[in-house]
Amino acid sequence: MEIEKVLNVSVSNQVFDKFVSIGRFITDYQCDDEVLYDDDDVGVAVHDDEEEDEYVQLEGNVAGIMQMGSGGIDDEILHEADEGMALNVLYIDAYWLQRKISQAYEQQKIDPQQSQKLAEEVLKILAESGDDRDVETKLLVHLQYDKFNLIKYLLRNRLKVVWCTCLARAEDQKKRKKIEQEMLGLGPDHAAILQQLHATTKETVKERQKNLEKSFREEARRLKDASGADGEDLDDGWLMGQRSLLDLDSLAFHQGGLLMTNKNCELLAGSYRNHMKGYEEVHVPALKPKPLAPGEKLVNISSLPQWAQPAFTGMIQLNRVQTKVYETALFSPENILLCAPTGAGKTNVAMLTILHQIGLNLVGNLSRRLEHYGVTVKELSGDQSLTRQRIEETQIIMTTPEKWDIITRKSGDRTYTQLVKLLIIDEIHLLHDNRGPVLESLIARIIRQIETTKEHIRLVGLSATLPNFEDVAEFLRVDLNKGLFHFDNSYRPVPLAQQYIGITVKKPLQRFQLMNDVCYEKVTSVAGKQQVLIFVHSRKETTRTARAIRDTALANDTLGKFLKENSLNREILLSHTDLVKNNDLKDLLSYGFAIHHAGLVRTDRQLVEDLFAKGNVQVLVSTATLAWGVNLPARTVIIKGTQIYNPQKEPGLN
């Protein structure tokens, strides 16, 4: 310290505090223009259960305040201070002081709990009755001497901070009224604060919007100063783009999943129609693969870096989709949005991004491929839970949006989110599904964390069907020139032919029976040659459909096409029947049929997936539980029905 150098003695904190107190009596100076403390409200406070008890203690201290400031800092000095020292009561909520302290200690990066504790101590000091100079001395001890601008700012707005915080923490309207009555009895200064609060709540919509836009501009300017952006970034660049006001009601898709922006439907060349009794078929041929462009070469696994090759054991080369994304995925930190058909190898692209992260410093399949790197892969879902210690010991977590939202939702708690450096979102087109809001909030939370902490987190989105991929890429902050990749059906490794069957029968019972008959015909046409996966829209319908096909096959004596007598598959299925807990599945399994839905226990679902993957089960009827991220060897896929039961909206949703 300078004083110790001048006096050539050691100065204790108590002696230094005495020097500061004596220095307050010096009046022959003028207050220099100083950079005033910024009044932006940034950050999210951590809410603790102890706050209610602390509020009761604070209320007792507040009652002792009568008239602050009359014997404190000189009125002329306060009059000469910048107008920026005045604090708008609109900005003060229950956590305003904690946010200001977090800003002041941004360089030291103090813990949120420590910031909360310090805020409560400062609030109690401000609430004490006494001279401003004594309060200032105590604040200097608590907040350190380099926080003098903040201390001066708090003293200037001492009454506002104490009483507005007290009002914001009131548990109900009754306590708030009691505090307001107490303020009215303490003098004109307190009454003026109440008058400002009431005037703020009565201001016009136009004035509120103007004040909100002003606060956004101030925060954008603060972010610009912190990141070193120039004026162009502030005025018309990325920063202001994140703070524009949106009319969310006008942007909402009220039709949800029924929204159709494509007004015209044009069939591919070679398509044709078949008219049958009670229904009509539309056949759409598969697209022919595009030939390799001049100079286009597939990347050989042997040409990958030596440390990356073990993850692709058994593969000779990357396919066309993976080759085009290879450079960006493995050698750059760019955010990526990949839209490619099912079976195009999106999982291998995700693997490349994981290898990139490993080079810098799905359960089962990923675990085997990452054993060489000593990486631990765990599942976190409704069936599998992990302790806090297990999460911290795991390098890759396979989870659902809902589960991750639950454990990371607490505001200000970055225990888990600060560990994440790469977020891969498979089936990102679910943003348009009823699960979309959860997924959107997770992404928005990550983007906000990147903006506030300035720590890069890579976002990778994968989808097989995404028409508005440019909009989603912008939402993910993807560079459209470097990180956006879109491939049509001509890039499918296995060409996809489609058939659309429209039932023309009007009576519900006849329509239901005809759908089962058509389903039986399509299944028997490939029985014994290829496996069939049938998707239905309810759990009960899985059993009904499987039994209808089995019973029809028994009646027509075609059951041998699905499972031959004395075959090895039959012996395998019979040996596993005793392990099944669901009676419906146990009844169907011995005939070569199986069902799969979320109502089955995990062991039954896993058994069905394993038997179908090995080719023991010929026909699998499932709900959407197998539609996302599960790869099964079905050559024929049937989607039965277009009505989904939704009790919240209407009985049947087309």
UniProtKB/TrEMBL annotation:
Annotated ranges, domain Helicase C-terminal: 510-654
Xref: PROSITE patterns: HELICASE_ATP_BIND_1 (PS51192), HELICASE_CTER (PS51194)
Domain of life according to the entry: Eukaryota
A family per Pfam: Helicase_PWI
MF GO annotations: ATP binding; helicase activity; hydrolase activity; nucleic acid binding
Domain Helicase ATP-binding: start-end pairs: 327-484
CDD domains: SF2_C_Ski2 (cd18795)
Gene3D superfamilies hit by this protein: P-loop containing nucleotide triphosphate hydrolases
Cellular component terms per the entry's GO annotation: spliceosomal complex
Claim: Nucleotidyltransferase is one of the keywords in the record: no
Chain coiled-coil ranges: none
The protein's name: Uncharacterized protein
Keywords: ATP-binding, Helicase, Hydrolase, mRNA processing, mRNA splicing, Nucleotide-binding, Spliceosome
Species this protein is from: Solanum verrucosum
InterPro entries assigned to the protein according to its UniProt record, in alphabetical order: AAA+_ATPase, Brr2_helicase_PWI, DEAD/DEAH_box_helicase_dom, Hel308_SKI2-like, Helicase_ATP-bd, Helicase_C-like, P-loop_NTPase
